[in-house]
Amino acid sequence: MNLFEKQSRLNQFFAQSPVNAAYLAGALSNRATFGQLSDVDIAVLLMDQIKADQFLDYQLYFLSELAKRLESDTIDVVILNQASLLLKLQVIKYGQIVFSRNEKQRVTFETRAVMDYLDFKKFDEIQNQALGRRLHGNRLPIDKGLVQAFLQQLRTAITILEETGQQPREIFTADYHYYGLAERYLQLAIEACLSICSTLIAAFGLRRAEGYHELLSIVAGQQLIPRPLSYRLGGISECTRSARP
């Protein structure tokens, strides 16, 4: 089977599946041909209507079907909908697009993934600095002034959110000034919470977080915040980031 036939089979298969985009990742993504199809990674972006509890089923299904269609048993499949921020960035940066159902939706996904990674990078840098100090035998103390600044940001945001929350629902939803103000300060409140979590993780030498949800779950695992609160904040964080243009 030549390269054209393999790409045609992939396009036909993904067009009949609930897939928005698919990428050839891994070592072969920069090659002109599929070669012997050794160490092939296919990264798949499922349609929005596919629920999280279905991701594993689709991953196994794609593994089986792609192995048959490409006549190879050395294929791996990654579901981008649940991939880490870093993995998404690597696929976008180094992967080769093999299927795109809707260019606008694909570009929107890639833009949001890059923005999310850049947003998270500042929290990641705090952890990198802490790791460097620990490797040199220096303990990283909690920066009291920094935490207090984040707490003040959180208090200010909560005050404004409480004020906007007093507006009747019909006025709030009809006036974009109220809606925009609330969205902005909700993002600032969540950012302050995540910054505090990142500072605590760095100071206590806890395991490295790879995404927003892990910042919260790691701190909750140390009983520094209630676990139900971490779930709620994580859900709100995901909603606010998904709502960004």
From TrEMBL:
SUPFAM superfamilies: Nucleotidyltransferase
Keyword Hydrolase carried by entry: yes
Coiled coil regions in record: none
Domain Polymerase beta nucleotidyltransferase, residue spans: 11-103
Domain of life: Bacteria
Entry GO CC: toxin-antitoxin complex
Molecular-function annotations in GO: hydrolase activity; RNA nuclease activity
Keyword Ribonucleoprotein set for record: no
Alphabetical UniProt keywords: Hydrolase, Nuclease, Toxin-antitoxin system
Cited Pfam families: HepT-like (PF01934), Polbeta (PF18765)
Record-stated family: Belongs to the HepT RNase toxin family.
Identification of the protein by name: Polymerase beta nucleotidyltransferase domain-containing protein
